[in-house]
Every structure is written in C-alpha cells, then in structure tokens.
Amino acid sequence: MSQKIDWAKYVAETEKNLTNKIASVEISSDESSRKKGSIGQNDEDAPEQFSPAEASLLAKVIRKGLVESKNDIEVQRRDPKSPLYSVKTFEALNLNPNLLKGVYEMGFNAPSKIQETALPTLLADPPQNLIAQAQSGTGKTAAFVLAMLSRVDSTKKYPQVLCLSPTYELAIQTGEVAAHMAKFCPEIEMKFAVRGEEVPKGTELTEHIIIGTPGKVLDWGLKFKIFDLKKIHVFVLDEADVMIATQGHQDQCIRIHKNLSSSCQMMFFSATYDQEVMDFAEHIVKNPITIRLKREEESLDNITQYYVRCANQQEKYNAVTNIYGTVGVGQAIIFCHTRKTAAWLSEKMAKDGHAVAVLTGDLTVEQRINVLDRFRQGQEKVLITTNVLSRGIDVEQVTIVVNFDLPIDVNKKADCETYLHRIGRTGRFGKRGIAINLVDSEQSMAILKTIEKHFNRKINYLNAEDSDEIEKNRKLVSLVNNKSNACLYSFVCLFK
Ligand SMILES: Nc1ncnc2c1ncn2[C@@H]1O[C@H](COP(=O)(O)OP(=O)(O)OP(=O)(O)O)[C@@H](O)[C@H]1O
Q1: Cα-atom radius of gyration of the chain, to the nearest Å?
Q2: 239 in the same domain as 345
Q3: Ligand 1 center–CA 114 separation, angstroms
Q4: Which GO terms describe its cellular component (predicted)?
Q5: Residue whose CA lies nearest to ligand 1 atom number 4
Q6: pLDDT of residue 40
C-alpha cells in the first residue's frame, strides 16, 4: 500500500480477496503458507479442530450483528479516585462530528453495553489505561477503533496509534472497521503492518495509525526504524487471548511494549478472562480500569435430552433419515466427529433424495457463509456439520440437535464443554429444544453417562415401544414450537 493510497479502497479490495486467501494461508505464528483448501486439518478422518485465530475470524465473518447481553458490566479500578463514567448515547462522547457521522453510517444507534463504559474511559482526559473483557461480538472492536480515530492529531504526520492483531486476517478485519468508521474523516491515514507490505529502506511513515501483526511491527519499529515507537500515544492490543495462543506473539508484544513511552495509553481487549490472559494484561497495562462483561452462559435448562441405541452406523443413518422426515417442527443440526463422517452422511442422504446442507472445515469462509445463510433462511431444514459450528449456532429456529457422534476430546473422553455448546442455549432464545444422542457402542454409552453425570441432567432413553414413554414425549415435544400433536406424534415414532 503506498502512503497516499485510498485506505477504504485498499481494504475493500483486500476484503474481496480475503475469503479466497483464507483458504490458502496459515493462521499461525510463522504465517507461512498452507495447502489450499485446508482451513482445518488435512486429515478428513481426524476430529476437526480449529485454532483460536481461525475460530475468531470465522465468528467475525459469520456473525450478523451485535451480541446483546443481559449481564451487567463489572468494573475494577486500581485507583478508586479515578473518575468513571458511562454513556447512553454516542453524542454524549463529544466526538468529532465527522466521526459521529461515520458511527451512525455504520448503523450504530446507541453504544453497546461494553461500549457504554469502555468509550468514556478510552476517551477520557487525561488518558486512562483499560483492560476490557467481553465475549466475541459485543462491540469491543468498534469501541477501540472509535477511540483510536478520536485520538489522532491529523496535523502531525507520523504514526501515533498502534494496534496489534494476532494474524494478518484479523488485522485486515480491524482495518475494515476503521476505514468504515473514518469514512467522513479522509484526513486520517492508516497503514497495515502485515506480511506482504513492504516499504523502501529509509522511508519514514507518515500515516497516523498502524494496524499490524507483532512480527512486522517489530521489524518496522525496531529493525528498520521506519516509525518511532516512542511517538505512539495509543497502543491497542486486540484479541489478547488469541495473541497468547499464537506462539511467540506474547514475547513480541512485550518487546514492542517495552519500547513505548511511559505515557502511552494502553488498551487491552480479550474475549476470555483466563489467568494467563490477565497475567499478560498486568505486564502490558499499568494502573488499569478493568471492565468485564460476563458471557451469557449456555444452559441445558430448556433442552430435553434423549439417547437412541443403534447397532451400527447404518442404524444411525436410518435414525437420522427418520428425523429428517419429521423436522416439520423446525430445523435440525447434526454433529459428526470427523469431516469424513459428515461427508459420508450428507452424500448418502443426498443420494436418497434428501436436501441437506453440510458445513465442514474444508470449505472456504465464503462457502461456509453461503451454507449458513441458506440454512438461516430455511432453504435446507437439516445442517450436517462438525465442531466447526459447535459454538454460537444462534439459529433460533433450530429445535433439534442430533449428535450423530458424541463429542469427545483428543483423549477420546467425553467433551462436556463441546456438548454444552452444541446443545445449550443462552437466555436470549429461551426456547425449548430437543437433543438426540445416537449411541452405537459401549464406549459411546460410557461417554453419554459421563455427560449425564457432569450436567446432572437425565438423558432419557427414547423407546418407541413403550407407550407411556411415547405419551410423555409427545406432551413434551408439543411444547416445542406449539405444533400440532399429529405432527409431533410422527416425530416420536421415528425410532419405531
Ligand atoms: N453500538 C453498536 N450498535 C450496533 N451494532 C454494533 C455496535 N457496536 C458494534 N456493533 C456491531 O456488532 C458486531 C460486533 O461488534 P465488534 O466486532 O465490535 O465486537 P467484538 O466484541 O470486537 O467482537 P470480536 O471479539 O469477535 O471482534 C459488528 O457487526 C459491529 O458492526
């Protein structure tokens, strides 16, 4: 990117290519290339696993909007005398009018919960250091981008704001938000410090904001000295939890941080609140105000859980096709352990004339979004997937979740957390749902028992021969979506 390039255009072009690139790049510490078409693991027999960076990027790209929370913000202040405000409107922040225009242009009417407290802190005079933790999608990026843009003095032609992201793709995402928000502030110039960006030796950067990955920023700031880290007065560390999970990044961040001036304002953001993240935060952020929005936990409260005994894979298949035939009550998601099983199941169902969607890690991000969009619109009633989708399904109309394979961890033990993410709902949806676990061996029965014990919630045996059981289930299922009993009866008869 040349120094005077149209930032918005650059981001638009980069974004256009991003989905293709994502399939062919390594999201890891060394940022080396990986085989095309392989976002997850290459081995389709292996359980699908996704790096924190991949998961974060996917969540960002797939998410449609703000994740609202009913929880209150928790605030901790080292210095109890430091003022703390919160705002209910963007006007109350006394923003540059063109920035405010940009915020409204993005469709933001009022600050999100985390923004209500984070923004006045980030914009306070004298500057305050902030550690903010809130789950993905709650408005953290928008908050610090607004603060970054507000802190620029465009009459001074040197980098003043530095934002570190863990990967190329995440940096591009942040840049896109910044470009969008700064739409009416053409005087603010930004530059990506990511792989592929080269600047001739001896250049001095004149852009106000640098958004980049730690390795490149270290090179530019310390090795080539094309900008002065001491002149940076706002330092943002985004996705700190993903940063830590990326090898070598933590040390690089600390090296960058050591070269900043002591008066530099520190903004630290994380989606999780692990001890490791907080230790890292302590290193980087002195005397912070810490704000925290606890995630709305998923629970099994509204979910009725069943298990069905199947002798083999074919019986599992039969059970699934029966379910498919009766999901008039809503939509279903079927979870498989490996990409291979998901492919086998979907192919078999397609051959038998069923329309199902399949979402696995070998799809590009663009393809995944298409699949999800179609499913959200109800174009397919059944979605077959792997753990690529275990978190944040957020499709309200999904009433049935089938575990074709029960979730297990790398040691082949019950993975209760994944079970909860697959089946559970947050208070947001509050609707009833049904989970059906297909059990085809003694091992899977043992896993089921572990899950049952872990959550202390009974997983009912679904036995279509037992008339009492059918009656009980019929009543229960009729609570789901208030559909007629006739339709629901067919659901219960699936397993006959
Ligand atoms: N005040 C707001 N009003 C409406 N929408 C908002 C507001 N703030 C952010 N959003 C939108 O909500 C979504 C999530 O916001 P954002 O990306 O800032 O969250 P985040 O916490 O940074 O998530 P992540 O950790 O995944 O990056 C985005 O689509 C963003 O445009």
Answers
A1: 25
A2: no
A3: 10
A4: cytoplasm; nucleus
A5: 108
A6: 39
